[in-house]
Amino acid sequence: LHEKTFCLASAHYYKLVTPPERERRKFPHESKGKKLLPPFLERERAMACSSLVKLNASSSQWIGQQSFNQRLGSSSRLATRRVSVVRAGSYTEELIQTAKSIASPGRGILAIDESNATCGKRLASIGLDNTEANRQAYRQLLLTTPGLGEYISGAILFEETLYQSTTDGKKFVDCLREENIVPGIKVDKGLVPLPGSNNESWCQGLDGLASRSAEYYKQGARFAKWRTVVSIPCGPSALAVKEAAWGLARYAAISQDNGLVPIVEPEILLDGDHPIERTLEVAERVWAEVFYYLAENNVTFEGILLKPSMVTPGAEHREKASPQTIAKYTLTMLKRRVPPSVPGIMFLSGGQSEMEATLNLNAMNQSPNPWHVSFSYARALQNTVLKTWQGRPENVEAAQKSLLVRAKANSLAQLGRYSADGETDDAKKGMFVKGYTY
Q1: What angle do CA 244, 250, 251 make, to 5 degrees?
Q2: Which of 209, 295, 326, 380 could hold 357 in an S-S bridge, CB 3.0 to 4.6 Å?
Q3: Where do the coiled-coil regions begin and end (predicted)?
């Protein structure tokens, strides 16, 4: 590298300084008939010779990775050499296989990753205190349901749940494995106000994520979830969209480096009175930004899953859209923004009723799609279960049966075979809460 610099500097000097000019400067190092170098270039030449020996003795890879930008004259420059970096991933094949396993026909994800505070809200709705024992009892009810693996391929857990066991001492992770359900883990640390935005939020949790992900992998988790949100009534601002996309991309890269399939979830909240066309516009903008930064961070698309919102009107819009309309707009957005190499689209329910979420999913599976189109529901799978259980041990079996009913309904919807005939009134009740926080 010094040799190259020396040659250019030497040529530049003799090009600009003509012999008469050199004579006027009376450089003492030049003798008649012999062209010598000025002292500063003589030092460069010596450095170049010394450095060249050292560099040849070491790896030449370092040299190839450097950019060289030497000034020639007043305006021209040599072109900068750009080196394409490919992130080596020791888990790549495992990630791809895990994603395919979760995105398997007729199955979807059970999301029970509510924080302890949110779980407390659920328990309070049936008159239970938010204690670890009550949270453990409810999670045990869900995760030990016989036959759950027929309809559920993955379960997203909260950190507390990952380390919990049944009252008999069996780890919840092992209960899932016995049903051929892949354990997952929520890794974000929640939403906080985004400074400089229009009352918007951003998601925290990147600090320490690599070490936490490695530990979750040791505990049996094989995929991760990171949820951030975008609010249409608040704009959304360019800052909020970029922050959401960049955070998701960094999380995805870190997760893959530690063996976890990242679920990418930029939830577009239902809040607002906007029409479905506005939701489509915002969704396209958000997902374009997300995939731009996923590519910038060298994320393997075959080893991720998406958890998008369905494209619907705002919850307060005067006109409700039919399942067919929602399917049309949602699939239009996905086909414009999501590459076919992504194995699975696992929709969130976002406050829809149990029946609405299932009907909309069913409508999207009436024709072939480039990806596995399925569900990753929390409230839309648990609402009836919770009401059936009521915190009573004698109701556990009935509550588990109601979970299987909802899981089977969404399994059929994933296959495009669901019918709403026979749905209960509870399943038809909407669960949207304005300004809802997790």
Answers
A1: 85
A2: 380
A3: none
Kindly tell me the sign of the dihedral angle through the C-alpha atoms of 312, 314, 315, 320.
Answer: negative
In a domain, 5, yes or no: no
Give the DSSP letter of residue 367: S
pLDDT at 374 over 90: yes
161-165 long-range contacts (CB < 8 A, ≥24 apart) are: 161/112, 161/113, 162/216, 162/219, 162/220, 162/221, 163/219, 164/136, 164/139
| Tally of structural domains, the chain | 1
Comparing CA positions, the residue from 119, 172, 141 lying closest to residue 388 is 141
Contact criterion met (CB below 8 Å) for 89 and 256: yes
Give the residue numbers spanning the domain of 350: 91-418
Residue 62 lies in a domain: no
Catalytic residues: 265, 307
Identify residue 42 by its one-letter amino acid code.
E
Q: What is the Cα–Cα distance from 86 to 76, expressed in whole angstroms?
A: 31
The CATH number that applies at residue 406 is: 3.20.20.70
3-class secondary structure, 28? coil
- Tell me, yes or no, whether 101 lies in a domain: yes
∠ Cα 203 207 211 (to 5°): 125
Rounded CA-CA distance 438/128 in Å is: 18
DSSP type of residue 180: T
Decide: 185 and 222 in contact? Cβ < 8 Å: no
Contact in structure between 108 and 375 (CB atoms under 8 Å): yes
The letter for the amino acid at 257 is D
Neighbours of 319 (CB within 10 A): 8
Please say if the pLDDT value at position 217 is more than 50.
yes
Residue with tokens 């027929």, as numbered in its chain: 150
Question: What percentage of residues in the chain have a pLDDT greater than 70?
Answer: 78
Decide if 119 is inside a domain. Answer: yes
Q: Give the bridge partners for 203, in sequence order.
A: 191
CB-CB contact of 96 with 148 (8 Å): no
The Cα 93–Cα 276 span in angstroms is: 39
Helices and strands counted in the chain (H then E)? 17, 12
Backbone angles phi, psi at 393, to 5 degrees: -55, -35
DSSP assignment of 96-124, as one string? HHHHHHHT-TT-EEEEE---HHHHHHHHH
Please list, in sequence order, all residues whose beta carbon lies within 8 angstroms of the beta carbon of residue 132, skipping any fewer than 6 positions away: 160
Helix (H, G, I), strand (E, B) or coil at 346: strand
> CA separation (Å) from 74 to 16, 58, 71?
12, 35, 7
> What predicted TM-score, i.e. pTM, was given to this entire model?
0.79
Cα separation, 395 vs 96, whole angstroms: 40
